Amino acid sequence: MKKDLKPIDMSSVKTYPLQDRINKVSVKDFASLPDTQMDLSQFIETLPKILKGTDFIELIDKIVTAYQRKKAVIVMMGGHVIKCGLSPLLIELAERGVITGFAFNGASSIHDFEIALIGETSEDVSAYLQTGKFGMWEETGKLMNDAIRHAADTEIGMGEVLGKKLVEIDAPYNTYSLLAAGNRLNIPITVHVAIGTDIIHQHPSADGAAIGKASFTDFQLLTQLVTELEDGGVVLNFGSAVILPEVFLKALTIARNLGHTVSRFTAADFDMTQQYRPAENVVKRPTEMGGKGYSFTGHHELMIPLLVLAVMSRL
User: Fold this and answer.
1) What is the DSSP code string of 107-150?
2) 233 Cβ partners below 8 Å, 6+ apart?
3) How many CB atoms lie within 10 A of CB 35?
C-alpha cells in the first residue's frame, strides 16, 4: 500500500556564518593580467595558483631544483613528440645540462633518425598501406638495422649506436636529432622496442636477436639511470601510453630490488589524453614511497614548449 509521504519540515535547519567556512578558492590565487613587457618567468607567476596552475609551477621548480642539485632529469618520449617538431627545445635543455638522459620507444628512434637523414619523417600510412609500400624504405631500414647488429655484436645499446651512426655518416640534419645530440653531449639515450611494432622490423635486414639484445642492453642502462632519481630527481613522460610506462615500472622494481631506495622523486606525465598506464605506472605507484606525481593534458606542441621555456627562463 502506498505510504502517505509528506515533505520534510526544513524550518529547523541550522545555518552557519559564511566567514567561518574553509574554502578551496580565493581571489589571492586568481590569475593576474600579464604585462606585455614581462618575460616568460614573470608570465608563469601570473597563472592562477589553482589546480593545474599550481601543479605546473611546482613542476617547473622541481626541475630547476634538480638541475641545481645535479640530480637526474630523465625524459621518456613517444614518437609524436618528435613529429611535433619539439626536438630543438629538448636538445637545448640537454645542452644546458638540465636533461641527463632520454628513453625512447622504437617510433621515437625512427622519426629522429629519418629527420637527421632527410629533414622529414611521418609517411602517409593510408596511402602506402594499400600498395604494400608502408614502411619499406631502404635507407631507414638498412642503416638502422646495420647499426643495431653492430650494437649487439659490440654489446652497446641501441640508442648509443644509432647516434654514433648518424655522426659517422654526417647526416645532413644532425642538428635536429636527439640521437646525434646524445652522442655529441655524452648523454645516454636508451631505446625500448617491442618486436613487430616498428617499420624497420619489416625489412629483410632486420635481425630479431640483435634488436632484442641491443634493446635489452638499453633496458639495463635505463635501470641504472633510474637509480639516480633518488631524493630530488625528475622523470617526465611525454606521450608514451604503453611501452615506456611499463619499462619504467620494471626498471624501478629492479633498482629497488638491488637495494636502491629510489624515493622522494618527481614524476610527471604529459599527453593529449590521460591514459591508464602513465597515470598508474609513472605518476601514482612509483611515488607512493615519497615524492609527488603530476598529470597534464594538452597538445604536445603547446604544452612542451611552455614547460621547456618556463624552465629555461628560471635558469
Assistant:
1) HHHHHHHHHHHHS-----HHHHHTTT-TT--HHHHHHHHHHHHH
2) 66, 71, 72, 73, 74, 265, 266
3) 10
Task: Write the DSSP assignment of 231-267 as a string of letters.
Answer: TT-EEEEES-SSHHHHHHHHHHHHHHHTT----SEEE
Q: Which residues pair with 292 in a beta bridge?
A: 266
Q: Give the separation between CA 253 and CA 125, rounded to whole angstroms.
A: 37
Q: Say which CATH topology domain 71-314 has.
A: Deoxyhypusine Synthase (3.40.910)
Q: How confident is the model at residue 185 (pLDDT cuts 50, 70, 90)?
A: very high
- Cell for 232? 630530488
Q: What is the pTM of this model?
A: 0.91
Q: How far apart are CA 140 and CA 156, in angstroms?
A: 20
Cβ count within 10 A of residue 134: 16
Q: What order do you get walking across the sheet with 101-105 strand by strand?
A: 189-192, 101-105, 73-77, 234-238, 265-271, 291-297
Question: Are 166 and 113 in contact, with CB atoms under 8 Å apart?
Answer: yes
Task: Please tell me the predicted confidence (pLDDT) of residue 312.
Answer: 94
Q: Is 26 exposed, middle or buried (0-12, 13-18, 19+ CB in 10 A)?
A: exposed
Burial of residue 2 (CB within 10 Å: 0-12, 13-18, 19+) is exposed
How many Å separate Cα 307 from the centre of its chain? Answer: 12
Instruction: Give CA–CA dist 304/297, Å, rounded.
Output: 11
For CA atoms 157, 163, 167, 171, give the dihedral sign: positive
Report pLDDT digits (tens) over 14-57.
999 999 999 988 999 888 887 777 777 788 888 889 999 999 99
User: Exposed/middle/buried for 7, CB within 10 Å: 0-12, 13-18, 19+?
Assistant: exposed
57 SS3 class? helix
Q: pLDDT tens across 115-142, in order? A: 999 999 988 898 889 999 888 888 999 9
Cβ(104)–Cβ(190) below 8 Å = yes
The SS3 of residue 84 is coil
